[in-house]
Amino acid sequence: MLVHDLHLDTQADDDIIWKHANNGIYSAATAYKAQFLGLTLSPMDFMIWKAWAPPKIKFFAWLAIQDRIWTADRLERRGWENCGLCPLCRTEGETSAHLFFKCRYTIRLWNSVILEFGLAHMDTSSWHLDGSVLEWWDKRTSLQNPDRRALASLTMLVSWTIWNERNARVF
Ligand SMILES: [Zn+2]
User: Fold this and answer.
1) What is d(CA 130, CA 134) in angstroms, rounded to the nearest whole number?
2) Spatial distance between the Cα atoms of 52 and 113, rounded to a whole number of angstroms
3) pLDDT tens digits along 61-99
4) The Reverse transcriptase zinc-binding domain covers which part of the protein (predicted)?
5) pLDDT tens digits for 111-169?
């Protein structure tokens, strides 16, 4: 234990050293920076980095949340060849929001996962109201959820499964 190496010198005055500044002197600016040294976590930390998943799936999620994966709408905007319709339902245009939480195929998969794991608090019926993947993902992993880390992992893994199924049908 570290305590064994600690010797109290009752004759010396106490010195307070602020370890976050090079000169050891406290300032508001260094205190502000210190908040980012592990004390404060961004929403992205909960949505992605703290979840249980392999790195490549976390990377996929990081792109998906920023709407940076190559769905048909994004390919179209670049003038690149694309599948147009969602390859899962073949009825609606493919956007990342459609693919990950609006497609009836996706909702059916989620409903079976919800039933399987007894996640009654997750209700897919209002998901169509969410405007973006970021908004939807954030709601699934926000503080109101009982087991945030598990749900973040589940959201990531189900979305990864959908993305792979989509790719298997496109290519
Ligand atoms: Zn679809």
Assistant:
1) 9
2) 17
3) 999 999 999 999 999 999 998 888 999 999 999 999 999
4) 26-110
5) 999 999 999 888 999 999 999 999 999 998 887 778 888 999 999 999 999 999 999 99
> Residue-wise over 108-147: b if at least 16 C-beta within 10 A, else e?
ebbeebbeeeebeebebeebeebeebbebbbbbbeeebee
Yes or no: say if 89 and 108 are a contact pair by the CB < 8 Å rule: no
DSSP 129: G
Give the C-alpha distances (Å, rounded to integers) separating 55 from 46, 67, 161: 15, 18, 15
Q: Of 136, 124, 126, 129, give the one whose Cα is nearest residue 96.
A: 136
Compute, in angstroms, the gap from residue 120 CA to the centroid of ligand 1. 24
Ligand 1 ion: Cβ-proximal residues, 5 Å cutoff: 86, 88-89, 103
Q: From ligand 1's centre to the CA of 92, what distance in Å?
A: 6
- CA 40 – CA 116 distance, rounded (Å): 34
